[in-house]
Amino acid sequence: MTPDVVRFRQADLLAGLYRRFGPVVRVGPYTYLLGPEANRFVFAHAELFEVERAFQSLVPVDGPTSLIVSDGEDHQRRRRLVQPALAHRQIAGYVPVMRANAEAAVEAWRPGAVVDVYQEFRRAIRRSTIHALFGEELARDSDFFGAHLQVLINLIDRNPAVVTWLRRTKAPAWRNAMRARRAVDARVYRAIEEARQGAMASGVLTSLVQSDGLSDLEVRDQVVTLIAAGYETTSGAMAWAIFNLLRHNGVWERAQEDDDYLANVVNETLRLYPPAVVSARVAAQPFEFAGKKIKQGTFLLYSLYVTHRLAEVWPDPLRFDPGRWERKPAPHEFLPFGGGPHRCIGAGLATTELTVMLRVLLQGPRPELLPQRVTPAGLAAMRPRHGLRIRVAG
Ligand code: HEM
Question: Facing residues of 49 across strands?
């Protein structure tokens, strides 16, 4: 039987620990900073934390100079260069590309067919993100990127200790991943070369190569980061939104007619199913929080999922209720995109993409959500583990 609300056992355990022990909980090598006050603290005291060591596990995909693993001045400089392409005004210009990609996916479905909407929209979102940010030429290779990046994503999805062991022993999984990375890199470096020669008219790549002082490696890392971070998380959110639209009575019909309601469905989806279940930091210096001393170098995790399902912040938290968005939550209560100086740079793009693509889906007749086990997977980009199967209206 398809559940009403999907629970992530691992993250629910954390909520139990928060209730028992308060906001600072040590589990093995990790220290969790849990609850709204911990979020507020992390966002307000960026100087106490670093992300470079916290997100080392992403380096095989995103590269050593990626925005995601950058601190201090390097972070500011790289973020400043990427930001303009993700500004509000630019995003509005990407809408036709988003819509066209969603339409191409939906129009290919035969009436009565069973489709996995997670995979279908994942593909559409990847193509649309690459097209919007880097142009049509690179978007033609979207499936190529998808195939190779998947090998790398599968690698970093594993326990970091296992990844280290695979690297040291040069195990087949590591060698495959490095082969995939070389293929991705060759394509991206070719695009960088073309952009340097002025062959590309616009896009983030042009502004990155035109900016002073960014090496080819830095440009490569930002490009791959934006592609990978852009579709991994958003496609998980898309699947959860479709699950909510189809699982709860009347939600699909109301969302068809009311844009504000659809926006609330998206928010309520990001509350119950924040793709980043946790985010990480490393203590850059010793500090104290909630009466507990944290040593320099401690690996810290703060949890979006736990906060989003706390009854003291969200009454009746497991109820899917788009109506609750009459109240605007504080940034430490609703944080699907994190917060502080490392807050997701693609938040606006992701929200627009979700809304535009859902609107395309909602224009057609209501599909049927097939009975299925829906279990979550992935702490960095939570998705339905086995996808999400629907039957297209006949
Ligand atoms: C629903 C979709 C998305 C979710 C839930 C999401 C979530 C997040 C979270 C939680 C962080 C870490 C914030 C922190 O720890 O403080 C983050 C960072 C980041 N995200 Fe997203 N993201 C999404 C879509 C995107 C998109 C579409 C892009 C780009 C096209 C993107 C690019 C990035 C980058 C580059 C960072 C690092 C920012 C920095 O350190 O300055 N994300 N995202």
Answer: 283
Tally of domains within the chain: 1
Structure confidence by residue, pLDDT tens digits, 38-75: 999 999 999 999 999 999 989 999 999 999 999 999 99
288 domain residue, yes or no: yes
CA distances from 82 to 86, 211, 335 (A): 7, 10, 22
pLDDT tens, residue by residue, 74-87: 999 999 999 988 99
CA-closest residue to ligand 1 atom 23 = 233
What is the Å distance from ligand 1's center to 172 Cα? 30
Cα–ligand 1 centroid distance for 34 (angstroms): 20
Residue 3 lies in a domain: no
ipTM over 0.95: yes
Does 4 fall in a domain?
A: no
What CATH number is associated with residue 209?
Answer: 1.10.630.10
Centre of ligand 1 to C-alpha 42, Å, is 16
177 is in an annotated binding site: no
For the chain, what is the mean pLDDT?
94
Ligand 1 atom nearest residue 304's Cα: 10
pTM of structure? 0.96
CA angle (8 as vertex; 4, 13 as ends), nearest 5: 125
